[in-house]
Amino acid sequence: MLTETLFTVNEAAKAYRLSHWTIWDLLKQGKLVRTKIAGKTFIRESEMQKLVRDVTKKPKLAMKSRQG
Q: CA 39 to CA 14: how far, in whole Å?
């Protein structure tokens, strides 16, 4: 049996120190996948972890040196 934590939007926001508006925006943008149960939105813990991995993998933009 596969057991995984399901978060409500508010629980995910609190656990990952984000606002619930940010979670809703990420769902709307397709960056998080929702799980619907009885018409309610839940987010799998693996989805949140994937989001964190994706964000930390993005290359940092190099700052242009200011020579003048």
A: 22
What is the C-alpha separation between 39 and 15, in angstroms, rounded?
Answer: 22
* DSSP helix/strand/coil, 42: strand
How does 10-20 read in b/e, with b if 16+ C-beta sit within 10 Å? eebbeeeebee
Neighbours of 31 (CB within 10 A): 13
- Which of 11-17's residues contact partners 24+ apart within 8 Å by CB, and which partners? 12/43, 12/48, 15/48, 16/48, 16/52
Which of 5, 7, 18 shows the shortest CA–CA distance to 42? 7
Taking only the tens place, the pLDDT of each residue in 12-61 is: 999 999 999 999 999 999 999 999 999 999 999 999 999 988 878 776 65
